[in-house]
Design brief:
With 600 residues, the chain is an alpha/beta fold. It contains 15 helices and 34 strands. A 5-stranded parallel β-sheet has the order 12-9-8-16-29, with helices on one face.
Length: 600
């Protein structure tokens, strides 16, 4: 925007010899999520006279299409050069409002989103005056930061149309095929001797009795027919360098007792390393006693007996007790999550047992049955086939012991009847074990993957960015993220394909410019920042006969960890400079008149 384009009123106001900023502020009602606990009108009115603010509005839904068009009209009509939206978390709608700025030809990094929902209205639902005063401070801080914003531009880099897929299970195989189908070369790496993962060892699987082994065999045949897929078994990812879109990865191939190094140039990485099954401790629900097996062991036993008699340790099985939630929903100190797939897997296995020998008595001991969606049809079929379902309380787990007369006895209190203690004599006890995260410490170190408190890899957002991680170009898919079914794992693998294609097919990618920058005049090359950076984005260079730090903007993730360790204040984070953050903090702590409760 040229000086001639600025209205006279704006040109007349000068700040330090520079034209005064023209900022639009929008305080969202969020359909009551904010306006029920914050006096939105008071916030809007308080911001009207803030220096640099020329538009202050309070829409019901800032993210709605209508309000977005209104913002675009205001930006163009009022020649705005800054935008502040006070609404929900930036995780939800930062991209939305950046796109609003771009559509109005406003620099997208002149936009600031202020979180007055999670950080204010939801935190202070019983203090209208206090929440309103806090909202005013938060929005003023956002305006102060925006006044000092610079027109940044995304970093444009060339991309390599090749993707590394780590993990040769069902999700990894399907992802490799999908990549080849859209014209992206795939390099598939599996650390085991064979491809296929868990599914390759399964017989019939729910919900349609398809053979897991046959499904994997079909995928392997498809891979053999595609020239754009290269597979390496007995191999691991052991190194990564370069930048997003142009990574150089180091693979270690384990061959004939020795290791061989291989370097591959890729544009993105899909991690699909799968899961491990929970291994009970000795004595846990009878584990270790003859006749007590885990769900994977039982599934293998059933798949190996398509007809005839089901036997275990050479003895015919006439009765089975399934104990659910072993290794899942354990409470504090254990695996608190639900593994989700194991209810349906067990019910399906019980139907297989009925097909082998309908006279076998089957008892399902559970906390809650979570056969969600159409899987409930299997639950109904199992009950109709004669299975007995008994519910125990969360704090009263069943006990398994050997009976004096031989066989096993499972004792529980069934809360669905009269809460009477029952002991069920059975030939076999199946511990329905859930999924646990696979040990991938080396991979986490190489890729800097984010790990959640449950041990699984974390995506940026489960709904809006379900397969992306905070590391640009590194995606996750399948059971390395969370427990899920075969269908859900395949869907995640294909989502990673779509994301890779969106990044790599056009030949270039745009990266956030919100990265660290070193002031060479201040830097003395102390080196603290080099060891602090978790992404190895900072190196030492020679500049003007001195050694100073230098940040690779394509590798930097903008975490800001290097800024506070520099004793010379030689590092700044673009978009969040010291000057911007000081201005925001000063606005927050500046004294203001408390907002009074409106008189009804």
């Amino acid at each position: 925007m040229s000086q001639a384009d600025i209205p006279e009123a704006a040109a007349a106001g000068q700040e330090g010899g520079q034209p005064q900023r023209r900022i639009g502020v929008y305080i969202c009602h969020c359909g009551g999520n904010i306006s029920d606990y914050v006096d939105v009108a008071a916030v809007r009115d308080a911001l009207k006279d803030e220096p640099g603010v020329v538009v202050s509005e309070s829409p019901v839904f800032a993210c709605s299409d209508g309000t977005q068009h209104d913002m675009i009209d205001d930006i163009r009509a009022q020649h705005l050069d800054g935008l502040v939206v006070a609404s929900c978390s930036p995780k939800l709608h930062q991209v939305t409002f950046r796109n609003v700025a771009k559509r109005a030809d406003l620099n997208q990094y002149a936009y600031t989103q202020v979180n007055v929902r999670e950080q204010d209205s939801w935190a202070h639902p019983h203090d209208l005056a206090g929440a309103t005063e806090k909202a005013i401070g938060l929005v003023r801080a956002g305006v102060a930061k925006t006044r000092l914003s610079d027109p940044l531009e995304p970093l444009v880099i060339q991309t390599v149309p090749r993707t590394l897929v780590v993990g040769g299970g069902i999700a990894g195989l399907r992802a490799a095929i999908g990549l080849a189908d859209v014209g992206i070369q795939a390099v598939l790496v599996e650390r085991e001797p064979k491809l296929g993962g868990w599914v390759a060892g399964f017989g019939a699987t729910f919900p349609n009795d398809a053979s897991g082994a046959e499904e994997v065999a079909g995928l392997l045949e498809e891979i053999r027919q595609r020239r754009d897929i290269t597979t390496y078994t007995n191999a691991e990812l052991t190194g990564k360098s370069g930048t997003f879109g142009d990574y150089m990865v180091e693979l270690t191939l384990h061959r004939d007792g020795s290791d061989k190094a291989l370097s591959v140039n890729v544009g993105s990485i899909v991690v699909a390393t799968g899961f491990d099954s929970y291994a009970p401790d000795d004595g846990e629900l009878g584990y270790g006693i003859q006749g007590v097996v885990t769900l994977p062991q039982f599934k293998e036993m059933v798949d190996a007996t398509p007809s005839g008699q089901l036997t275990h340790a050479g003895r015919r099985v006439r009765s089975i007790a399934y104990i659910y939630c072993v290794g899942s929903r354990q409470g504090a100190g254990g695996n608190e999550y639900c593994s989700k797939y194991c209810c349906t897997a067990t019910i399906h296995a019980s139907l297989q047992v009925g097909g082998i020998d309908s006279s076998i008595r089957q008892f399902h001991l559970y906390r809650d049955i979570r056969a969600y969606g159409t899987n409930e049809l299997l639950y109904n079929a199992s009950r109709d086939a004669g299975s007995t379902f008994l519910k125990f309380a969360d704090d009263a787990l069943p006990a398994v012991a050997t009976l004096p007369t031989g066989g096993l006895g499972v004792t529980l209190v069934d809360v669905l009847t009269d809460s009477r203690e029952l002991t069920i004599p059975v030939d076999l006890v199946v511990l329905v074990t859930g999924m646990v995260p696979r040990e991938n410490r080396g991979l986490v170190g190489v890729l800097k993957l984010p790990v959640g408190s449950d041990g699984f890899f974390n995506e940026i957002h489960p709904k809006l960015r379900p397969v992306e991680t905070v590391v640009d170009g590194v995606m996750i898919a399948g059971c390395c993220q969370s427990p899920r079914t075969v269908g859900e794992s395949v869907a995640a693998g294909l989502a990673a394909v779509a994301q890779s294609a969106a990044l790599l097919k056009k030949g270039f990618a745009e990266l956030e410019p919100l990265v660290a920058r070193v002031n060479p005049e201040k830097c003395i090359g102390g080196g603290e920042c080099l060891t602090t950076c978790p992404y190895d984005a900072i190196t030492s260079i020679e500049w003007d006969a001195r050694t100073i730090a230098s940040v690779d903007p394509a590798t930097c993730k903008g975490c800001g960890g290097c800024v506070p360790v520099c004793g010379r204040d030689a590092i700044d984070l673009l978009g969040y400079t010291d000057q911007q953050m000081r201005a925001a903090i000063e606005e927050m702590i500046s004294t203001s008149e408390p907002v009074k409760e409106p008189v009804s």
